[in-house]
């Protein structure tokens, strides 16, 4: 008579319904979907800084396994989707600081740190009460305070809407531009602004034929350099060929000049630059944005458009009448819309109103 085999020892398996801890989520940055539980420890504003008070926006949360955790390295940075910011963001709801949250999303980098993006749900942890109100999903709400306005009143209202946003460091722009200006037909490449060339994202720097960071509103026009704010605002930073960028320099924009020998369709003379037709409207709408966003408050530079060239170091850019023409002749395209969404959702949390409503340029200027 045979004997029964001894039972095999059981291997412990994780209960798939149990949320990951923050420590586990930090280790599993593999792009998978997961549910993570942790305490809200602040609002990330860079890859190493987390605000614990005086919160500036509702775009991100930091989670940790310990309620009083102060080390950002032990925190998971969570990108909050626009639909959930009214109930899940710290600026609007500072009382959620220190509370437990269970969040579902994709385990992938955010702020160049281990993170959770593409969030589908944010709910209170055990012991926290559920909020009953539902956030608005009407995208028109973003501009609701500007409805029916024109002229200076419209400009002021739009400034108030787009004024508060996350300010990137100059170093963060490399990765950000690689995402905002990625070639949709050739992943891992960016499309250069003036030449239209598709170039490997890794080929950036200062060598000939590299791409670098072009300030469309020339940084000498207001002398703001590369400081956080106007010097790093993604809404006017674009990839450009190093030598072409150098040729453009700090020239104002206008029609005419001699053809550029490296950038087909671009023209220049001693006091102005004309970009290729495919991006004339892009250039105009970027400058419209800068003139509305930077109005001299909070110690920032006051940037204004005028109908001149040769503006030099004055905080002005031209030529306004030509920019308005370009806004009409080169309408907003899907690439611009995609770029605006990425900047809004993933980096700064504000939009370029003139991509969403190009008609507002004529109503202001």
What this model shows, in words?
- Keywords: Hydrolase, Nuclease.
- One of its GO terms (molecular function) is nuclease activity.
- Residues 20-123 form the Endonuclease YhcR N-terminal domain.
- It holds the Pfam family DUF6359.
- With 365 residues, the protein is of the alpha+beta class.
- The protein has two domains: 22-124, OB fold (Dihydrolipoamide Acetyltransferase, E2P) (Beta Barrel), CATH 2.40.50.200; 140-364, no CATH class.
- It has helices spanning 22-27, 85-88, 151-162, 173-180, 242-248, 280-293, 320-329, 334-347, 353-356, 360-364, and strands spanning 33-44, 50-51, 60-64, 76-79, 100-107, 115-124, 189-191, 198-200, 211-215, 237-241, 252-253, 258-259, 267-268, 272-274, 304-305, 316-317.
- It has a five-stranded mixed barrel with strand order 1-3-4-6-5. Strands 11-14-13-12 form a four-stranded mixed sheet, with no helix packed on it.
- A hairpin with a 6-residue loop joins strand 7 (189-191) and strand 8.
Question: Any descriptors?
Answer:
365 residues; alpha+beta; OB fold (Dihydrolipoamide Acetyltransferase, E2P); five-stranded mixed beta barrel; four-stranded mixed β-sheet; disordered N terminus
